[in-house]
Amino acid sequence: MLDALIIGSGYLGSCLKKQFKNVQSSSLDQAGDFCFSLEDSPFEILPKAKTLIISCSIEKMGVRAEGFAEFAKNHYQKCILISTASLFKVTQANEIITDDHPLKAEHPRAINESYFRSFSALLYCGLLWDDHLRQPQKWLPRIKNGAKHVNLCKIDLVAHICRLISEISDFPPGPYVCSDTQALTWSDIADRSQHTLNSETAGIESKILSPQKLQSLFKSKIDWNSFVYCVKKEPK
To answer: Contact at 8 Å (CB) between 221 and 160?
Structure first.
């Protein structure tokens, strides 16, 4: 039996895979250990594992999502579903979002993920980044309002949290906000990179994530400061 089975071998899935020794990942092509489509493939072809990690969106699964949730519940000791903090329903600018904050109830992805909620850890992640491929300072030319908050979540932090969850036998299921706790504005990021952005009053597109439960559960296991965004100087 595998220690972990990861659905998805893309940007996130590849990083998660490095956290485990006895692990396999699926993909739609040859990037993973075997081919599997959430929308089309039979669930029975999935290998046995202690922990199932779903690293890609299940939004397009439609009616299959409920069946997949039932299969996961019956065949895996633990399930982790990685989602996005964009699913939180925001009603005012710079609203503080905690773990049990309401979701956009009519969103197809939120509906499909709700079937997993009673037995899975659902990680609602901020904007994923890393030191090489997805660097926040490189996105600055596309940002129109520097006053908007951006909740960064280093991909290494997500991977580390997934491994820790897999190691805790009685880890409580439910929703978890996942971010680095900083809630910078895009202007903050621009200042660190010696850029300037136009700033206007932010609307409901601006929110502040507060990962209270993860910080409490892993207060002695994670140095959150080590996953905070900083601008690294390019070698000369």
So the answer is: no
- pLDDT, averaged per 10 consecutive residues of the chain (236 residues), comes to 97 96 94 95 98 98 97 98 98 97 97 98 97 94 95 97 96 97 94 92 95 95 92 55
DSSP the chain: -EEEEEE--SHHHHHHHTT-SSEEEEESSSSSSEE--TTTS-GGGSPPEEEEEE-S--GGGTTHHHHHHHHHHHH-SEEEEEEEGGGB---STTEEE-TTPPB-TT-HHHHHHHTTTTTEEEEEE-EEE-SSSS-GGGGGGG-S-TTSEE-EEEHHHHHHHHHHHHH-TTPPPEEEEES-S--EEHHHHHHHTT---------TT-EEE--HHHHHHTTTT--GGGGS--PPPPP-
116 Cβ neighbours under 8 A, 6+ residues apart: 54, 69, 72, 79, 81, 122
The full set of domain ranges for the chain reads 2-227
Give me the amino acid identity at 212: Q
Domain 2-227: state its class: alpha beta
pTM (two decimals) = 0.95
